[in-house]
Amino acid sequence: MIVSIEQLDGIAAAYRQKTGTYSKIVKICCGTGCISSGALKVYEKLNEAIAAEKLIDRVLVKKTGCHGLCERGPIIVFGEDEILYQTVGKRNLDDDAKLLLKTIQDGTVAENLLYKGEDKTKRYVSPRDIPFYSGQTRIVLAQNGILDPEDIEEYISAGGYRAIHKALQMDPAEIIEWIQKSGLRGRGGGGFPTGTKWRSCRDAEGEPRYVIANGDEGDPGAFMDRSLMEGNPHAVIEGMIIGGYAIGSDQGFIYVRDEYPLAVQRLSTAINKARENGLLGTNIFGSGFSFDIKIFRGGGAFVCGESTALMSSIEGKTGEPRAKYIHTVEKGLWDKPSNLNNVETWACVPHIINKGWEWFSSIGTPQSKGTKVFSLVGKVKNTGLVEVPMGITLNEIIFELGGGIQGNRKFKAVQTGGPSGGCIPGEHLGMPVDFDSLTKLGSMMGSGGMIVMDERDCMVDVARYFLKFLVDESCGKCTPCREGVRRMYEIVDNICGGNGEEGDVERLEELAKAIQLGSLCALGQSAPNPVLSTIKYFRDEYNVHIRQKKCPAGVCKALTAFMIDPGKCTGCMRCASECPVICISGEKKKVHAIDQSKCIKCGTCYDVCKFDAVKYE
Amino acid sequence: MEVDTAVVNTIIDKYGKDKSYLLAMFQDVQRQYRYLPKDAIQHICDKLNIPFSKGYEVATFYSSLSLKPRGKHTVHVCLGTACHLRGGPNILNTFERELNIKRGDTTENGLFTLESVNCLGACALAPLVRIDEQDYGKTTPGSVKKIINEYGEST
């Protein structure tokens, strides 16, 4: 049981002594991305090789949380950012294991496992030099990719659980004051000032009070919270304990998506370890303050990310939201004062307590403080997680950290804010990323999903995609959302199918207004945003679909035909062998042809052709 | 399927007969039987002293619960935004063609159930497919057949 700061120091010193005996430390990223790229096989193979060479006492191979550059996984880092290897084991596991062993034994750097630069000639040894990492300011992700998330001693040796000790010496009102002055705003998308929320909950009448971490990260294209829960669960727990003390609550809940089994497992392990060490439970640090945390798994319902729906789900009911005439800080879970924050918000709290509110508020813009983690995905070269100071421009994120568009195609739009956000076109890439700027553009920062689209993406299809998503995920409680979004979907689906009519765009705008005004919760109120933003910036594309019955991006199947240009086709057979319905005929070195009656317009031939011989119309 | 009440009782007791954990109990039953049998819902509702209609409401609200028996392996094709843009719908179509079933159905031999999911959160590896607990990243129509073959013959 840990009851004093000296004991934390002791654990940290013992951990450093233990790891100090190793001459090499090898960190294998075991986030979900790298695991699906084969990280666990690399881990096993490397351990076997090390055992065979009798190096077990000298080399520590450990599993860490997500390192961020998921596109290039599995990622392996040697020591303190000395060497970063990428896509390890993707070509040949045995060969790569030998290269790893060689690096361990004599420090030889394996050139072909290094990250390559844009021009393919420059190779980067240390992650510190790779633009994807060097352009980031990592605070909440700082320990991701370094710590073993299942090892509480390592978290403590990295300064963990000291913020609680410090907070327990402070007056709860003073902690709330700090959070308020730090300028921390909710990372889940709402952007509500966290200190204000805490104060309202503390001041609300009723006992007991509850604190809740929202880990129901349902926005498609977003996985920041997942990586935090998987990669540094103790930081979330520590933030919640501080929040519990400040608000006057002794019970916390973490609500995690059912789709994130690894996050549930790592959080459970972390909670158990914290309990064993007396950091959760009764009389924490001998202060008289008690706090514990329970995990709830979601059931695959997007709407449960909404605070009132989430609380209803914890109560064992269906996750339907309610009108918020009375805020959840007053009457939330079981009608008791409840303070809900996003996972990333909780993870910011220990840093603010450790380093002070002045430090936190010195980062970012006047209205949006600190850093924000974004999941940069879609058609960008370096997909993965980036943490940047608020106020950085979209351009910097996409073209400097992200390395630009895959296949050097043309940038078309970036979608932020998930199904509640919108698509931002190229002319606004200079816009700073913060809570308020993106809202002015008709999108929102949201929880941090950033999906990059290129010229081969159809904006009408994207609008249809989000409407379909929302039709599926509407809980059905209120009519504007249940029926209105469905009607919008039908109109857009008609446009994509070549049955669009003049006046459809105006009808969409009219419906959108009604849904925004009449829906019960934020899911419905913001549901029209993806459509409205695509109409705002890409109205021409809607018009071409409706009037000319054409899809300029070649996505909408009813409006697209793929053809082979006889002048360019070299007869390489590539498209014919990749075609899933085998509708491309032709022999080697002879011009191929597509059988239009069989073609399912999947575009595979277009994507695989190296000679630009496949066209679409 | 015959529901073993002893198994269900163990699950109920694990959560201290707490009604808040209704969804968790259903999920645990589903893990056991690969779907949520109606008899199990009834049994849990009786034990927790809540009306069957309440339990049924919860069971049909959450999309991760299935009241239909599932195949030996559940294929989840991710249709999150990143997967959608990088060809997720084509991957789903390919599974439908190769397994000769539609989304939501189970193959005749009971080997596969095909489902789509709205985001698995491994967007950097789009398009993603999850079979049971194994993830497959950067799938292509060509790789679908290979993946299916890992689990035995296709239908």
Report the mean per-residue pLDDT of chain B as an integer: 93
Per CATH, what is the topology of the largest domain in chain B? Answer: Glutaredoxin
What is the topology, as strand order, of the major beta sheet of chain B? 2-1-3-4
Report strand order across the widest sheet of chain A.
Answer: 12-11-15-13-14
The Rg value of chain B, from CA coordinates, equals 17 Å
Q: Give the biggest beta sheet of chain A.
A: 5 strands, mixed
CATH architecture of the largest domain in chain A: 3-Layer(aba) Sandwich
Number of domains of chain A: 5
CATH class of the largest domain in chain A: Alpha Beta
The number of helical segments of chain A is 24
Oligomer: heterodimer
Tell me the total number of β-strands of chain A.
Answer: 19
Shape of chain A: globular
Helix run count of chain B: 7
Name the poorly predicted regions of chain A. Answer: none
Description:
The complex is a heterodimer of chains A (617) and B (155). Chain A is α/β, with parallel strands linked by helices and 617 residues long. Chain A has 5 domains: 22-127, 3-Layer(aba) Sandwich (Glutaredoxin); 152-361, Rossmann fold; 371-454, Ubiquitin-like (UB roll); 459-548, de novo design (two linked rop proteins), CATH 1.20.1440; 561-616, Alpha-Beta Plaits, CATH 3.30.70.20. Chain A is built from 24 helices and 19 strands. A 5-stranded mixed beta sheet of chain A has the order 12-11-15-13-14. In chain A, strand 3 (76-78) and strand 4 form a beta hairpin. The longest helix of chain A is centred in the last third of the chain and has 20 residues, at 529-548. Chain A is globular. Chain A starts with a helix and ends with a strand. With 155 residues, chain B is α+β, with helices and mostly antiparallel strands. Chain B has 2 domains: 5-61, no CATH class; 73-150, Glutaredoxin (3-Layer(aba) Sandwich). Chain B is 45% helix and 12% strand. Chain B has helices at 5-14, 22-33, 38-48, 52-61, 81-85, 88-99, 141-150; strands spanning 73-78, 112-117, 129-131, 134-136. A 4-stranded mixed beta sheet of chain B has the order 2-1-3-4, covered by helices on one side. In chain B, helix 1 (5-14) packs across helix 3 (38-48). Chain B is elongated. Chain B starts with a helix and ends in a 5-residue tail after the last helix. Classes of the chains: A alpha/beta (617), B alpha+beta (155). At the A-B interface, helix 2, strand 11, strand 15 and helix 18 of A face helix 2, helix 4, helix 5, helix 6 and strand 4 of B.
